[in-house]
Description:
One of its GO terms (molecular function) is hydrolase activity, hydrolyzing O-glycosyl compounds. InterPro entries: Carb-bd_dom_fam9. It is a single chain. This protein is mostly beta strands. The chain has one helix spanning 100-103; strands at residues 6-8, 22-29, 33-42, 61-67, 73-79, 84-89, 96-97, 107-115, 118-128, 143-152, 161-163, 181-185, 192-193. The strands form 2 sheets. Strands 4, 5, 6, 7, 10, 11 and 12 form a 7-stranded antiparallel β-sheet that branches. Strands 1, 2, 3, 8, 9 and 13 form a 6-stranded antiparallel β-sheet that branches. It is globular and about 45 Å long.
Amino acid sequence: MLAANDxxxxxxxxxxxxxxxxxxxxxxxxNESIFILYRVKEKHVRHVTTAINGAVWEDSCVEFFIAFxxxxxxxxxxxxxxxxxxxxxxxxxxxxxxxxxxVRMVHVDTTMRKENDAYVxxxxxxxxxxxxxxxxxxxxxxxxxxxxxxKCGDLLPEPHFMCWNKINSATPDFxxxxxxxxxxxxxxxxxxxx
Length: 194
């Protein structure tokens, strides 16, 4: 269960991709939407992908995966300029990308600045429940799900793969629902943490 609303991505399960990037995120909901604020500090940034459902994982990218049942999960991926990819499926292969008009329902705000020898960027997401088109989610109150949060940059000068809940696999692979952690979206009458 997510007991607070501020977390660090501290797990780096693949030592060959070690990074000194700093990543924190906060998550809240208001019954109708999930709000996630990512705060990233890293030496290099890349923001090439501008097409919806493009290869955002090759850029400076943060990701949120969520499963509402044991059938499948959504992978919500965003590069540092807010370009989004959202898919659904049961594993890494045979994923179905959601239609562009559904992906566009996610509201994204981004900021970036240079701070000494690093880039500091923030990404604020508002993900309405209507994005989860494979499920009938009308309210998040008391909904139980399984989640994980990630940071990657496959084509950065120093590729890296960070996660919130540790993954045990020989090679980098975020598509591992067996390593998602349980989360309960607490009942709220106004904005509150999960």
